[in-house]
Amino acid sequence: MTPGVQLIADAPESYAEALPGCRMSRVIGASAVAGLDGGFMRFDADTDLGSWRLTYDEVVYVTRGELTVVPEDPAGDAVVAAAGSAVAIVSGTTVRYRGRAGTHALYVLTPRGAMPRSTKRVPRDGAARRSDSTSA
């Protein structure tokens, strides 16, 4: 390892199901990068991850597909991030993440350790939903 520089790889074997339709890999928190946490996420199906209140600042960079972030508290317009764009979310904001099947993203948050270590996410409204062609 080069002092001060570390490669953080997207390793398929490191993924665990966060909620139905979404897998996450928490590789940044396990790295030597002080103060940061995060990893990679993949959506295997069109999925609404439910309402989630952030206790950290987060940036999500979409590398493939499309991710929609809907601010609920405070309420605001949905932000749609296509491949090559990022969404910044401020601590204390309640949002819904809606990913399209095939979407891949990198998420980075601070402070380190603010997101529960388990990749299992429990949304505030208690339900993650896979979207299908009959729901919008």
Low-confidence stretches: 119-124, 126-136
Note the total helix count: 0
| Terminal CA distance | 47 Å
Structural class: mainly beta
Share of helix, binned: under 10%
CATH architecture: Sandwich
Mean pLDDT: 83
The succession of helices and strands, N to C, reads EEEEEEEEEEE
Integer tally of domains: 1
Task: Based on Cα principal axes, name the global outline.
Answer: globular
Largest sheet geometry? 6 strands, antiparallel
Question: Which radius of gyration do the C-alpha atoms yield?
Answer: 14 Å
Please name the CATH topology.
Answer: Jelly Rolls
Kindly state the number of beta strands: 11
Walk across the major sheet and give the strand order.
Answer: 1-2-3-10-5-8
Helix/strand layout:
Layout: E1 16-19, E2 22-25, E3 37-43, E4 47-53, E5 57-64, E6 66-73, E7 79-82, E8 86-89, E9 94-99, E10 104-110, E11 129-130
Antiparallel strand pairs: 1-2, 2-3, 3-10, 4-9, 4-11, 5-8, 5-10, 6-7, 6-9
Defining key terms:
136 residues; mainly beta; Jelly Rolls; five-stranded antiparallel sheet; 0% helix; EutQ; RmlC-like_jellyroll; Ethanolamine utilization EutQ family protein; RmlC_Cupin_sf
Structure write-up:
By secondary structure, the chain is an all-beta fold. The chain has a single domain, classed as Jelly Rolls. Helix content is 0%, strand content 45%. The relative contact order is 0.28. A hairpin with a 2-residue loop joins strand 1 and strand 2. It has no helices and eleven strands. The chain has a six-stranded antiparallel beta sheet with strand order 1-2-3-10-5-8, with no helix packed on it. The protein has a five-stranded antiparallel beta sheet with strand order 7-6-9-4-11, with no helix packed on it. Pfam families: EutQ (PF06249). InterPro entries: EutQ, RmlC-like_jellyroll, RmlC_Cupin_sf. It comes from Conexibacter woesei (strain DSM 14684 / CCUG 47730 / CIP 108061 / JCM 11494 / NBRC 100937 / ID131577).
